[in-house]
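Proteins fold reproducibly. Consider a sample protein:
=====
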Amino acid sequence: MFIVDAHLDIAYNALNYGRSPLQPLSYTRQQEPPDSERGQATVAFPDMRQGGVGIVFGTLFVTPSHAKIPIASEKMVYHNANEAFSYGMKQLDYYYRLADENQSLRLVTNQSLLEEVLQSHKEDNPAPLLGIVPLMEGADPIREPEEAELWYERGLRLIGLAWDDTRYATGGWTRTDEGLTKEGYRLLEVMADVGFILDLTHMSEQSTIEALEHYEGVVVATHSNCRALVPGTRQLSDTQIRLLGERDGVIGTVLYNTFLQPGWRKGDRKEAVTLDHVVANIDHVCQVLGSARHVGIGSDLDGGFGAEHIPAGLDSIADLGKIAEALLAHGYEAADVEGIMGGNWLRILRRALPE
């Protein structure tokens, strides 16, 4: 089964914490203290291949100095647009360097590269290609809306307007919801003209609604769970889910226990959350929208938490296939499971990537 994971902070972890994705997790875990604040590492290329992961969305993520949620040992904190731009470009350059120096990696920026990766998994290939699709999480590295075109030329293919609040949109962590800014509306115009995929993750509900009303391009939520199951503005309401479904978007399920069970916090028992909670989140999207066409995996496995903070039965990205087994055990048809594990994201990429 071909697996797509729509949200991983690979460059961020490499440049901030020295976690090389080229080394197997067994090596990285030996190098880090067992009580690391971020938890045991869960993401590395060798383990992706072991688990059948063929494409990931690799983020450009930098922390705003005004962040309401502090990040431990953060090195890339921006205080102005130029700093955000510089840190974002460093992460994009890191992905290019990985692909240039490793023949088994591809930066997937067009249809031919996508098909090259897919074909490598169809052949009797002991080392199929791994594709990385560049995604910007929080749009402040774009210093002015017109600069989005430069980022597209450099290979960026998805943009999320917010993580925390940005100058383009109110974020999902906020207590006040002011929606999009004037610059945010202008950025959406440029993004649509160029051909970006809009990622609604981390945007407030008002920002989401306004963006969907004005954006004519492809829309997704790469890593968002359901508010009906876990209350909080970080999760998607059923209204947001329905609006995304109407646009034929896809929503990636996050594997962080806090987003899967109400009240779970770091330090709580890992075993309190199981694959049943993952299936429940996926199933809620399917029930709201009436099909399995609009849900996928956006694990965020390296997004500030570790193996201790994901459901029982999962230890690393190599275990994503267990989600498929759980879905089949819950009565999902094989074709729907293939879509959830990767096919739905491939549909988005085939629709949005240039020739």
About this structure: The chain has a mean pLDDT of 95.
